[in-house]
């Protein structure tokens, strides 16, 4: 049996992948385990949902990405439990993987705040499958509106509600508005896609509430110009097939909408809760594990928790945001700490997150950015957004393809991935029970 230090990484997202790459030349054996065989560039998932990109353009096979790292192997599997005393990870198929150091980077999942039944009518945006489901709902809504004779039914099909005004919600709203105003402008005969009503609902008083206030207001104004309206200070109380009910300062309101998209928050996975239970670790209200300054679990210096699962803080005690940069830097830090230990070097300094700023794109040549405290908006911010996102896409081929797609979209307003996949259109039409047109499909 080899005496080489065994590092097991759970999750092939930003945190896990950056940790694996940082261990490329280390004298360790690395095993990366993920329930998917690809790394997904989640910041661009909304572009799959709105037809700008195809899933393959923002996903990269993990084996291909790590193929040249001879000290690394990739396993397809799902971790369901750990034994921190025996240093073993139990997989869903009942097999086990032993480790000397463990990096937990399995990511978060969408939070419906105790109303998981809403997921059926308001899908979230955390996976490729959810992105294609949302794409189906958006494009199918315009198809149904084209066939409706009842004006009220037509309005309902042309009403889109996004719950959550964070970066994902704002980016979705902007892309959806551009689809209605430009991409589909000349494609229909009975309806005008430009008449689509787009609402973004959030409990906070403004969109992008974690951004500086001036950038939030600029983002809202940009959305308004595109025809999307942000409604802050509201709490959603029901989501169903017919629309959304929400509470405002003036009472309860109802929006009839056949398309609802959930972008309101995230929570930890069941596996993260299991890790906390096994390690008897303290968690915050969201279920994230409270970690030491070096991102390890108290009493378990061999277990690192990074990314969305870690309740890590800045030096002033402010919680770190659940963004890709935190996961990337956490993964690299955990890997370097492990290397230091293996090579007998002094303990690494506590983890310090280097905040590079925030970016959110609202649409064509519209974005807001807070870069090292400098606030920029409009075309310049949009260019910065384009450059940074292209730079962080894992595979070079994908960067080229995405760049070409964006170029065509900028020139033509076209979206090449406008496919209604999943349930057949005829089945979906029959399922609504509300079709009054006699046209055939």
Description:
By secondary structure, the chain is an alpha/beta fold. The protein folds into two domains: 5-35 and 77-110 and 266-342, FAD/NAD(P)-binding domain; 116-264 and 358-431, 3-Layer(bba) Sandwich (FAD/NAD(P)-binding domain), CATH 3.50.50.100. It contains twelve helices and 23 strands. It has helices at residues 14-22, 45-49, 62-65, 128-147, 151-157, 167-183, 213-226, 270-279, 324-342, 379-392, 396-412, 425-432; strands at 5-10, 28-34, 38-40, 59-61, 72-76, 79-83, 88-91, 96-98, 101-104, 108-110, 159-163, 197-201, 228-231, 235-240, 243-248, 251-256, 259-262, 266-268, 296-297, 300-305, 358-363, 366-371, 374-377. The strands form seven sheets. Strands 5-2-1-9-20-19 form a six-stranded mixed sheet, with helices on one face. Strands 13-12-11-17 form a four-stranded parallel sheet. Helix 1 (14-22) packs parallel to helix 9, helix 4 packs antiparallel against helix 5 and helix 6 runs parallel beside helix 7. The longest helix is centred in the N-terminal third of the chain and has 20 residues, at 128-147. The termini are far apart. The model is unreliable at 424-431 and 433-441 (pLDDT under 50).
Mean pLDDT: 92
CATH architecture annotation name of the largest domain = 3-Layer(bba) Sandwich
Give the strand line-up of the largest sheet: 5-2-1-9-20-19
Helix content: 25-40%
What percent of residues are in strands?
Answer: 15-25%
- Might you state the CATH topology name of the largest domain? FAD/NAD(P)-binding domain
Total separate domains:
2
**Large-scale geometry:** globular
Poorly predicted runs:
424-431, 433-441
Give a quick account of the main beta sheet: strands, pairing sense, barrel closure: 6 strands, mixed
CATH class of the largest domain: Alpha Beta
